[in-house]
Each structure stands twice: as structure tokens, then as C-alpha cells.
Amino acid sequence: MLKRKIESVIEEHLTSGSSKILLVDGARQVGKSYIIRHVGKKLFKNYIELNMSEDKLGHQSFKNIKTVDDFYLQVSISAGLSMGNKEDTLIFIDEIQEYPELLTLLKFLAQDNRFTYIASGSLLGVTLSKTTSIPIGSIRQVRMYPLDFEEFLYANGINETAVASLKNKFSNMETLDENIHNRIMDIFRKYLLVGGMPDAVNIYISEKNIVKVREYQNEIHEYYGIDASKYDKENKLKIKRIYDLIPSNMENKKKRIVAKDIEPDKSNRTFFSYQDSFDYLISAGISLGVQAVSTPVFPLIQASGKNLLKLYLNDVGLLTALLYGNNIRAILDDERSINLGSVYETVVASELIAHGHKLFYYDNRTKGEVDYLIDDYDSLSVLPIEVKSGKDYSIHSALTNFTKNEDYSVKKAYVLSNEREIKSKGKITYLPIYYVMFL
């Protein structure tokens, strides 16, 4: 079984006695149901799983549920003998987004406090935005992502002691010896190929067959693209077009979304014309949005924004499947002729957002761009991050100028690259790319 860090979050909540219901959000196929099922069966004598997607395709027993008593009546029909009490019974409502009214009902189930509950779903960001009565104060929402690089290390036999040692090295800014560095970089490059979708990782671990991994990744990418039609029939073609543009957009120098590229025949379209489509892709968890700011101040949420947006795929394995197919040499051999900039930026975006960071980038017409800006709560300042995939990792004029701008009050900056040695020059520290897992 794959080790997922969210397991401890779920277990802690379910054993805390909290009156809130845990709601696990995330894109499809990231492993939500599997990990909840694993924890639920481990902790509770009575485990009841209700899949609303299956119900909607079948008897639709929960479609018109309005009250707590109605809910219990339907549960009892299929699991009456397993309905004990709050201490020994967990009711897991899966794919809850299929019946948005159940999100409102969670408030009353929490108040009734008869059993322990947990819920999960995809597109919850979209569904909650359309729900008239959001159960604020009654739910605790957490988002689940594909395996991050630390979890991929565990899947490849690197234990917690070794990862703790790596983290200690990072905290002390100590360079790894060459053998360990090469070992971690080897796993990192494989992570670029496989990504973090649990089924893709399991296929790789068990079979080491890149063709089968790619088949699965291509199916997921196609599935994500057509899934929009189920929830946003009005904008489904625009959403699909934007999603399909992401890989090719990543190969452009600027990488940002350009409105005229989405529907070239509609020249009057503006960035705002597609705001709902962008919001859908980001809320659904299948794309990661990085917002441009021109005047970075801490905290970045209050920084002056621009109508510029970069979109990344939510999993680096999906990107490399689209860009390179079954040819793994481009990544494993670090081919000089192949620019892996978009791949490295994607993996950094997915790591940062999985660790709870909101994503921004610096855009200034005269001073250039910096790949990522995140909030550094220790120093109460903005932390700029530049990502380099080639040998020219020390060339970064925009980042250098950024750190020198006294108005931005930058305390430190990072450059992430393939280079083993950790070193600093002024406010800029050069780190191996794999240390992004500890940011």
C-alpha cells in the first residue's frame, strides 16, 4: 500500500472527537476513496460506505433526501445492522458532489451527532460555489493531491528515517554527498515520468512498464478533459479547449494563457470572458493556477494583481506523457537538446500547492519574470523561486533585480536546479531541485 501523508490528517480528525465533518476534496483518481476506506476500516468496528455516483446511476435513493431522518432511513435499508453509535460507526459519503443538497445536510448530521461521518468528492470547489447553503462551521475541508515527491520516495523504498535525514540536511543547508545526490536525482527523474497518480505509481512499482503507465496517464488526461461536460454544459467546449492547450502553452516562453489562442475566430474575447472556465479547471483540481503580480508585498494575497494567468497540469506524469510519449531517454538521460523547463516548473508548482502554498509569479514588462512567489511566514516577506532545468542555472537577471529592489523587502531567494552543491550568493541560495519537497 502506498504511504500517503494525508492518512495521518484523516486519522487525527476521526479520533479527535471533533464536531465537524471532514470533507476531503480533490481531483479524480488521486486516491481519496482508497485512503478513507483504509483508515475507516482500521479505526471503526462498523464502516458504512455510501457512493453517491453509483446511487445516481442506480436507484437514486439519496436524490431527494431533505432531513436527517430521511437520510438514516435510507442508510438503514442497506446497512441497518452496522449502525451502532458515534464511537464505533463511521459513515463515509463518497462522491457527495453528485447530490449538492447533501452538502447542506452535513450541517444537520453534525448537529445530530449520532455517528461519525466523513465525506469526499471531486469538483467540490465547483459544487460548493453553486450551493445555496454552505455548512460553514460544520465541515473541515482538506484537499488531496497526487503523490508528492516525498511520497514517491516512500513508494520507491526510501524510508522515513532517510527522508528525515534529508530534511535535516536541508534545514542545515548541507550538500549531499555525490552518491546520495545521484540516487535521489535518479528517483526524481523517474518521478517526472511516472508522476503521482496512485494507479500510475502502482503500475510502475509492480511492473516497471512505461507503456502501461503511459496508457493509464493518457486515459486520465482524456477523462479530465471530457469530465467538464457533466458539470458545466454551457462552457464545456471552452474548458476542454483551454485544458488541451496547457501542454503546448507550457512550451511557450511566457507560458501564460492568451485569450485569442482559445477561440481564434472570436477576436473580441478577453481574459475575463474565460474567467469561469479558468475557475472550473482550478476548482476541479485538474489544473494549477499561478496568478501574476507586479507589485509583490507580503502577504501575496493582497499584492496588486494582473489579468495574467499560467495554468499547469495537476500531475507532472500527465505532462511528460503528452510531451514525450514512451520515449523515456529525454528525461532519464538529461538530453541537452531537450528543454525540460516546462516539466520542472510543473513539478515545482504541484509540490508547492500540495504543501499549502498559494501560487503567484512576478511579471514586470521592464524587469522580467520570476517563476514563483510564495509567502515566507518566518520572515514575513515574499520568497521568490526560480526553476532551472539546464546548465545555465546561475543566469537569472530578473531574480537578481528582484532581490535588489528595496521596495520588495526580500530576505532570501531560491534557485532550484540539478546542481548538487548548495551555495549562496547574496540573498540567493542555490538548491538541488529535489529539496522543493521541504519548502
Molecular structure report:
- This protein is of the alpha/beta class.
- It has 18 helices and 13 strands.
- Strand 8 and strand 9 form a beta hairpin.
- The mean pLDDT is 91.
Short structural description:
The protein contains 18 helices and 13 strands. The chain has helices at 6-14, 32-43, 52-57, 68-79, 101-112, 124-129, 149-155, 160-171, 178-194, 198-207, 210-231, 236-250, 259-262, 275-283, 316-324, 329-332, 341-354, 397-404, and strands spanning 21-25, 46-51, 89-94, 116-121, 139-143, 287-295, 304-313, 360-364, 368-376, 381-387, 413-417, 423-425, 428-432.
Distance between the termini: 26 Å
Helix content: 40-55%
Radius of gyration, in angstroms, nearest whole number: 23 Å
- Total strands: the figure is 13
Counting copies of identical and different chains, the oligomeric state is single chain
Structural class from helices and strands?
Answer: alpha/beta
Contiguous helical run count: 18
Could you report the average pLDDT, rounded to the nearest whole number?
A: 91
Topology, element by element:
Elements lengths: L5 H9 L6 E5 L6 H12 L2 E6 H6 L10 H12 L9 E6 L6 H12 L3 E6 L2 H6 L9 E5 L5 H7 L4 H12 L6 H17 L3 H10 L2 H22 L4 H15 L8 H4 L12 H9 L3 E9 L8 E10 L2 H9 L4 H4 L8 H14 L5 E5 L3 E9 L4 E7 L9 H8 L8 E5 L5 E3 L2 E5 L7
